[in-house]
Design brief:
Chain lengths: ~450, ~450
């Protein structure tokens, strides 16, 4: 089968790119309400993609938020069913002045596609459409295939759980297949077996009712930026431990043996520091860098603002200060419990000289995939065929909150076979996706279906 | 003389407003380079105002920054000479959505002028032009008058010291008269006898070279917002004491007797809290509210920003975080020494996981005016004539850095006879200036000149 796929990819290379670029050009930023019409344009585009690829049917379906696109091709009720999950929405593009090219006008340069969504997740989702196209057109499809492409992944999929409950039967599958993660390196395939959970809040601290002159009032009225800074400082100690009471209570401690195994993964501190551009790393005392991102929770302020932020100097004692605050969670931590613990803690440390409002923006649980799952084995074999090496199972620091929810509602495990690379700058300026990974993804996925069908036979 | 002035003001009321409004409509924001042409427009407008009022000459003069307008009327070399100092530049108008009217389109409502600069300092400076007009037109001017209206007060007058050195002879005077402060209340006149100094910095904290995905890297790479928050928190303790080593070394301690006298000024904690809209005040332990703003230094973050600050949630570990940080200084503190102490402290507490850059934006020394100065006495009598009460000497928390510099370079003391009120919202949205104060200023100032000339006789 491999020779045939390679030939198919070679023949249709340019068309695949042209089609992907049409999808990328739609600025489907789910966190900005003004882009709502773009969410519908993206959903319609996905319907068109699935029908053109060979789906029996495809439709744009409403949720309580942005629409999803669902499509399917059922070949045989006895064959295994794969539900492909991906997302059509993308992150905002701020700070836009750091982009070297227009985020929504994809460019191929240095062997990579440069654009918002090139990897996360338009590029990766689109590989599935093209792998499916090959199988459907060549008559070699050995599984039933369902596609669920959603439009709110980047804001925590707030409306998808309800949609899943409502359409449980339609979404029934043996396994969910997802490409929304990365592999260790272009010559070192890996499969993500764990994801961190997430809880995300917005905090508003109000001091005086209006901005005040910092000379006339400074020293006598609490400054909300000073106060917010102190509250943030009070949430993590100098050794990287989070100080919210009860925060670590449910954290699944990883055994010494397992940590020793994780420690064998190839990793260079020097390379890592160089790649992120820092002289020294900082993280929780007593854990390695990979442990800090893989098995330990975090506390990061994702954004902060307040007072005068223009050019030059303005002497103001501001009325308000804001922060967007996130924690990454690990297995056994309940994001709904953490949500409340943080609110309680932040309210408890707020001095009476200010008003504090904490709003929960979104969150989701963590996830673990067992490596003896038949679909995991199929993914392993497919990746070995294309990359020539057995893929390594890894725990990722990122979150795809809906993955744990799928398990809870649909009772189906997910296999996270991502083709991104650490250098793809997802969520950042100059997001990119190597052409080699894009085409390798399209080459690998048909083999996954073949091996999965064989497992069943 | 009073009846005559009152009649003059009554006759020309509307014209005074119309002329002031032309000045206010020029958006002369000195901290924003794009407004440079407006600074020249404002300077030309002031030249026109002074010549129309009766100056012998007036001209727009260059400095190394924004231009100044100088004008004079010399009646007699033996008469006392008053140098009127004011400024034509204004503060930025952010956050502009909190303004109820266009900041640069003045409106009269509820007995007040509403606009940026209505008080600070276009409205207050303009009173001097109209008082001078009355004296010049009526032939009752008993002093030589010089006007120096500058365009960089709100950014700390960085180029005026050099200008003063160059034009020392031209600016020679017996006293400098300034209306750029406020009085206790509309029925309680006061004269400002002390001003706090100022030092103002911008801090940039850089973590990773680019924004990172907070899931993939969070926990392993220092977050510059977390770090900056901690550094700010480390600069003031829970009792409002500033922790920069050496910061308090030169602070002039005020005697218990003097503090007791200050404590007699009418003041209601409840009214104060209500006026700023807070439930509890916060300031340095061991000092009253008026002491905290009058005789003690402060540490206020005037602005902070970094990471994602748009709508919704973006999971990012940002590359950079910024803050605009100011301290108010009291007599004997040297702003140039404090500048260095802060930079040294902030660099010393920065962890090696980030890069910290501290830029000094501007600063100036504090100032004290003796209450036995002949010009102070003249101001006292003039205010009593119009307001019916002896004015109270007060220490203001604000800063006019150039006032101490005038003393240093020109050897001349300033009398700070301000007609603003605490409710004028200077530097804030909805700045305003009561018409009553505006007209009372024009009524009071000619009396000042009369009393000062009498002192000399």
């Amino acid at each position: 089968m491999m020779n045939e796929i390679n030939k198919y990819v070679e023949t249709h290379k340019q068309r695949f790119l042209d089609e992907l670029f049409e999808l990328i050009r739609i600025p489907s930023i789910s966190s900005i309400p003004a882009h709502k019409p773009d969410m519908y344009r993206a959903a319609e585009k996905w319907k068109e993609i699935l029908l053109a690829a060979g789906a029996d049917k495809a439709e744009v379906m409403e949720t309580d938020g942005n629409p999803v696109t669902y499509g399917e091709k059922i070949i045989d009720k006895k064959a295994p069913t794969v539900l492909v999950y991906g997302h059509m929405d993308v992150m905002p593009v701020d700070p836009v002045d750091l982009w070297k090219t227009d985020p929504f006008e994809p460019v191929v340069k240095d062997g990579k596609i440069w654009a918002r969504g090139a990897d996360d997740d338009k590029g990766q989702s689109f590989m599935h459409a093209k792998a499916f196209e090959y199988l459907a057109q060549s008559g070699k499809l050995g599984c039933n295939v369902k596609f669920l492409i959603e439009g709110e992944e980047e804001v925590g999929s707030p409306n998808l759980p309800k949609f899943c409950k409502k359409h449980k039967k339609m979404l029934q599958a043996d396994v969910i297949l997802v490409s929304d993660t990365s592999m260790i390196a272009r010559d070192m395939p890996s499969i993500t077996t764990g994801l961190r959970g997430l809880a995300y809040w917005q905090v508003e601290v109000t001091g005086p009712a209006a901005d005040l002159h910092s000379g006339l009032f400074g020293g006598a009225v609490a400054n909300p930026i000073n106060v917010l800074s102190k509250m943030i400082a009070q949430t993590m100690d100098d050794e990287g431990r989070i100080l919210i009471p009860g925060f670590y209570d449910d954290v699944a401690e990883v055994s010494g043996k397992e940590r020793a195994m994780m420690g064998k993964a190839p990793f260079s501190i020097q390379e890592y520091k160089k790649s992120v551009g820092v002289k020294e790393l900082f993280g929780e005392k007593g854990y390695t860098t990979n442990e800090r991102t893989g098995i330990r929770p975090t506390f990061d302020v994702c954004g902060i603002w307040g007072g005068y932020t223009g050019e030059g100097a303005k002497t103001v004692l501001p009325s308000k200060a804001y922060a967007k605050i996130s924690t990454r969670l690990v297995p056994n931590q309940d994001h709904k419990k953490i949500e409340k613990l943080f609110v309680k803690y932040f309210e408890s440390i707020a001095p009476k000289s200010v008003k504090v409002k904490v709003e929960y923006l979104h969150g989701g649980p963590s996830y673990v995939c067992p490596i003896d799952l038949p679909a995991y084995k199929a993914a392993e074999k497919a990746l070995k065929d294309v990359y020539g090496k057995d893929p390594v199972p890894v725990r990722s620091g990122g979150s795809i909150p809906i993955i744990a929810t799928f398990e809870e509602i649909l009772g189906v495990k997910s296999v996270l076979m991502g083709f991104g690379l650490g250098s793809d700058a997802i969520h950042s300026p100059n997001e990119n996706f190597p052409l080699e990974q894009f085409y390798n993804g399209i080459r690998t996925l048909p083999l996954f279906y073949q091996y999965l069908a064989e497992e069943r036979d």
